[in-house]
Design a protein that fits this description.
Layout (H helix, E strand, L loop, with lengths): L16 E10 L6 H9 L17 E8 L8 E8 L9 H15 L3 E7 L17 H8 L3 E6 L6 H15 L5 E4 L8 H9 L19 H16 L9 E10 L4 E10 L2 H8 L4 H18 L3 E9 L7 H6 L15
Parallel strand pairs: 1-3, 1-4, 4-5, 5-6, 8-9
Antiparallel strand pairs: 2-3, 7-8
Helix pairs in contact: 6-8
Bound molecules: guanosine-5'-triphosphate and magnesium ion.
Length: 337
């Protein structure tokens, strides 16, 4: 987060900001939290994949919402904090991710609980009472809350109604709004953001009007490279992999960026898989990651990828810290991609 908080918007930056604050996006893994953030911002900021536990660090994404109930045109500055899926589990990396999410959510003004409405086993409020989701259940009990029932593009209307009723009954004493949405199509996201904006405290902007995130391009590039690992490698491997950016050079004269990145894995056998036959896999990873990073940065990118083995990096604090997975205080962010 910026250390230079209150930079008021200039007069020509749109209606004044009369509410501002943080909203943590929380949920069990794979429900669409990062997809929702990206869709609201209209930028591919957070890594997304069909595999659970894609997000490892909190990421801030700042969005402005028009407030129709104010006497004069006015806006809210809604600083979303995307978090790792909250689920109990073994291993130092998992614990880091859970702590990262809980710490982020504990400090925000309100919480957005995202539920996968298309997941027949996990979409009802009782999911929050299951042992592996206990920390999440505890968190949402005590915070100003909106519940987004996501992925409604995959849910037939007759299925959605009883689901809405179940969540309304759960939310009755909490006065939490329930909003059906599709992060994929954008359906329902405007009313969702308005419901969240109304929970923010009154006050001036916390960030300059053109700031989108607290993460630098170097971190975001690492995330897009790591996203490709989730898309292109088998079930287990992405969890044993991290990405380190060793070189990041903006070349104003050439109007391009040169990036040297290292994919860190835990075993030689994993390195062989990432490299692939004759280097085919890493070549494809490089091609797809380069295109995604170039789109984000809006300029040509030269990307070099290497693979390195760091045994058991994900098993202990020292390994995690060496790859930048260290929690920073406040709603600030820390960690490698
Ligand atoms: N059909 C459909 N798919 C969605 C929607 N939102 C997300 N998805 C898909 O759900 C999968 C998980 O999305 P993510 O955004 O990575 O989920 P997440 O909650 O951030 O996951 P973690 O970071 O692992 O906790 C991806 O394959 C998305 O494309 C939606 O509204 N509709
Ligand atoms: Mg995510």
């Amino acid at each position: 987060m910026s250390d230079d908080p209150a930079t008021p918007p200039a007069a020509d930056d749109g209606p004044p900001i009369v509410r501002a604050g943080f909203c943590a996006i929380v949920g069990v893994p794979n429900v669409g939290k990062s997809t929702l953030l990206n869709r609201v911002l209209g930028v591919r900021l957070a890594a997304v994949s069909p595999k659970p536990q894609t997000t490892r660090n909190r990421i801030l994404g700042i969005h402005h919402v028009a407030l129709p109930d104010e006497p004069a045109p006015a806006r809210a500055q809604l600083a979303f904090v995307d978090t790792p899926g909250i689920q109990d589990g073994k291993g130092a990396l998992r614990r880091y991710m859970r702590d990262e999410a809980l710490a982020a959510a504990g400090e925000t003004d309100c919480v957005l609980l995202v539920v996968d409405a298309s997941d027949a086993r996990g979409r009802l409020p009782r999911r929050l009472g299951e042992p592996d989701a206990a920390a999440l259940g505890e968190l949402v009990r005590s915070r100003p809350l909106v519940v987004a029932l996501n992925k409604i593009d995959r849910v037939a209307k007759p299925e959605l109604l009883p689901l809405m009723e179940a969540w309304h009954a759960w939310a009755a004493e909490r006065q939490a709004e329930i909003v059906p949405v599709s992060a994929l199509t954008g359906d329902g996201l405007a009313p969702l953001c308005l419901a969240l904006a109304r929970l923010l405290p009154r006050g001036p902007a916390l960030f300059p009007p053109d700031q989108l995130t607290d993460r630098d391009d170097r971190f975001l590039a690492g995330e897009l490279i790591r996203e490709q690992l989730y898309h292109q490698l088998g079930q287990e491997l992405p969890y044993a992999a991290a990405v380190m950016i060793e070189r990041y050079e903006e070349r104003p004269s050439q109007k391009d960026v040169v990036i040297g990145a290292v994919v860190v894995v835990e075993r030689d056998s994993q390195k062989a898989i990432v490299v692939g036959k004759g280097g085919a896999r890493i070549k494809q990873l490089g091609i797809d990651a380069r295109a995604a990073v170039a789109e984000l940065l809006g300029c040509p990118v030269h990307l070099t990828l290497h693979v390195k083995v760091v045994p058991e990096w994900s098993q202990g604090q020292r390994g995690l810290s060496s790859l930048g997975y260290t929690t920073r205080g406040s709603t600030g962010t820390g960690g490698a991609a």
